[in-house]
Amino acid sequence: MLQQGKFEKALAALEKLLPDAPEEIKERCRMYISTCQKQLEKANLKFDTPEEQYDYAVSQLNTGFYETAREQFNAIVTANPGADYAFYGLSVLDAITGRSQDCLNNLARAIELNAKNRLQARVDNDFQSMVDDPRFTELLYPEIP
Known about the structure:
- The chain is mostly helical.
- The chain folds into 2 domains: 7-43; 50-140, Alpha Horseshoe (Serine Threonine Protein Phosphatase 5, Tetratricopeptide repeat).
- The chain has 8 helices and no strands.
- Helix 3 (50-62) packs antiparallel against helix 4 (66-79) and helix 3 (50-62) packs parallel to helix 5 (84-96).
- The chain starts with 6 loop residues before the first helix and ends in a 5-residue tail after the last helix.
């Protein structure tokens, strides 16, 4: 049921199984229960504004749920192509996950939409993995020859 995406049915079955499950599979049941709950919560997400969705994406990024964060940032830029903050969020996520070219592309777009993002990126520790990349330096300091 879990593999078929039937999370409600899987959750009910796992919760029924858990109390009487042998000790060696109880922890796995708990893990699958948690997975089902997260999937069901994700399906019920509703945001009133792109900024609310952004806040949720950042919370997912900060807790290590990178794919969920990426889905949310991408949804924002798809619906709002001028959302510089979402491109910035994607660039941070890309830096953290080792996608340097995507980081540079998304950061360049964020800066193009709002020049203040250049100043923010200069002091943002989330770009630590990018500091030795000359393309990153050129993007942040275009005035230095």
